[in-house]
Design brief:
Layout lengths: L24 E9 L6 H12 L9 H27 L6 H21 L3 E9 L4 H10 L4 E6 L6 H15 L7 E4 L7 H18 L4 E7 L3 H5 L4 H18 L9 E6 L12 H10 L4 E5 L8 H17 L4 E4 L7 H16 L2
Parallel strand pairs: 1-2, 1-3, 3-4, 5-6, 5-7, 7-8
C-alpha cells in the first residue's frame, strides 16, 4: 500500500509532505498585536477581539458582554485612536514593525546556528498577522515540529496562556498535528537579564545616574495572582536578577535606586501594586528630581511604553516637581536581545 505521506497530499488538512524528507521545524514568535490603523473603527475591532478574551477579563461573560458592547466599545475606541495616532509611524504600528525586525534577526541567527531548514515567523494574538493565518501557512509547508515563543518574558494568563489557547484552537483543526514545544517564560534567562542591564548601563553612561530607576511592569488584577497566576513572582525574580547584575557591574547604582512598579491598570478592581503613576508622583514629591524608567515586561515598544511611559507618566512626574525624566526603550531588536531570544530557542531546536 502506498504511504499517504510519500508525496504531497492535496488536502489542506494533511500538512505533511514527505516522510523521507528532513523534518521541517517552525518557530512561531508571538506578541499582543495592534489595531490595523490608528482610527476609531480599527481600534474598535481590535478592542472587541482583545477584551472578548476570557483570559483577559474574567468577569461572568453575560455581564461583561453587556458592559463591553454597551459602554466600552462605544466610548473607548475614539480616545484610544488618538493615542495610537501619537505613536504611529510611516511603516505602521510600532509593535508590529519592531516585531517583524525581531523575526528577521532571530531567523538569521537561528539559520547560522541551527541550519537553513528552520522556518521562523511572527504572529499577533490580536489583529494581523493572526496566529491562525501563520499556522495555516506552516501547515502548507508541511512542518513536523512547532516551537512557540510568546515574547512576554514573564508568564501571565492574559498573555502567555491566551497565546496557548489560540495555538491550540488552530491545531485542533489539523488532521496531522506536529510535535509542539511551547515556551511559557524566559524571565530568568541570563542573556535576557544581561540585555536589560546593558541597556540601562548605556543610558547611565549617557545621562548620568538618576535619583531613582523605576522598573515598571505591566499590571494585572490582584485577584489573578491570588488565584494562582505566577506573574508577580516572575516579575520579582527578573527584578532581583537585574538588580544583582547591575550592582555587580560597580556602576554608580545602589539597591536604594531601584523601584519596582506596575502600570496600565484598567477598571476599578485592585491591581498589583505599587502603581507606576502614583509612585512617580510620590517620588517627585519626596525630592527625587531625576528619574529613569524602563519596562522589563515589554519585548517591543508599543502604546503602553511609547505613550503611557514616555509621555503620560512623564507629565505625572514633572507636574509633581520632577525635573529630568528619561524613558529607556524596550529591548526591541537590539543584538543582545536577539541573542537572548535565540538562546531560549536553541536548546529545543538543537534536539530536533
Amino acid at each position: 500500500m502506498k504511504s499517504r505521506f510519500s508525496a504531497k497530499n492535496n488536502s489542506s488538512n494533511q500538512g505533511k509532505e514527505n516522510s523521507n524528507s528532513a523534518p521541517k521545524v517552525a518557530v512561531l514568535l508571538t506578541n499582543l498585536g495592534s489595531p490595523a490603523a490608528p482610527n476609531t473603527a480599527a481600534v474598535r475591532n481590535y478592542l472587541r477581539e482583545f477584551l472578548s478574551d476570557p483570559r483577559v477579563v474574567e468577569i461572568p461573560r453575560v455581564i461583561w458582554m453587556l458592559i463591553l458592547h454597551g459602554f466600552i466599545l462605544r466610548l473607548r475606541p475614539k480616545k484610544s485612536a488618538k493615542l495610537y495616532q501619537s505613536i504611529w509611524t510611516d511603516q505602521g504600528a510600532p509593535l508590529v514593525v519592531i516585531s517583524q525586525a525581531q523575526r528577521k534577526k532571530v531567523a538569521t541567527q537561528i539559520k547560522q546556528q541551527c541550519g537553513e531548514d528552520i522556518i521562523v515567523d511572527i504572529a499577533m494574538r490580536y489583529g494581523e498577522p493572526s496566529i491562525s493565518s501563520v499556522l495555516e501557512k506552516f501547515q502548507q509547508q508541511g512542518i513536523d515540529k512547532l516551537v512557540v515563543l510568546p515574547l512576554y518574558p514573564q508568564y501571565a494568563g492574559p498573555t502567555t496562556a491566551s497565546t496557548f489557547d489560540a495555538v491550540s484552537k488552530e491545531l485542533q483543526k489539523w488532521r496531522y498535528v506536529p510535535s509542539l514545544n511551547f515556551i511559557n517564560s524566559y524571565h530568568s534567562n541570563p542573556l535576557y537579564i544581561t540585555a536589560l542591564a546593558n541597556s540601562i548601563t548605556e543610558h547611565l553612561v549617557k545621562y548620568g545616574t538618576p535619583d531613582k530607576l523605576v522598573l515598571s511592569y505591566h499590571g494585572m488584577p490582584e485577584l489573578f495572582y491570588q488565584w494562582g497566576d505566577p506573574y508577580l513572582d516572575f516579575c520579582q525574580i527578573t527584578t532581583d536578577l537585574l538588580k544583582k547584575e547591575l550592582l555587580a557591574r560597580s556602576i554608580d547604582l545602589t539597591d536604594e535606586h531601584l523601584v519596582m512598579t506596575f502600570q496600565s491598570r484598567f477598571g476599578k478592581a485592585k491591581w498589583l501594586q505599587p502603581y507606576t503613576d502614583e509612585t512617580l508622583a510620590l517620588l517627585a514629591k519626596q525630592g527625587n528630581k531625576h528619574l529613569a524608567i524602563i519596562s522589563p515586561a515589554f519585548s517591543a515598544d508599543c502604546l503602553e511604553t511609547l505613550e503611557e511611559l514616555e509621555h503620560e507618566n512623564r507629565e505625572v512626574f514633572m507636574a509633581a516637581g520632577g525635573e529630568q525624566y528619561h524613558y529607556i526603550a524596550a529591548l526591541n531588536d537590539r543584538d543582545d536581545h536577539i541573542s537572548a531570544l535565540v538562546s531560549v530557542l536553541s536548546p529545543i531546536l538543537a534536539a530536533r
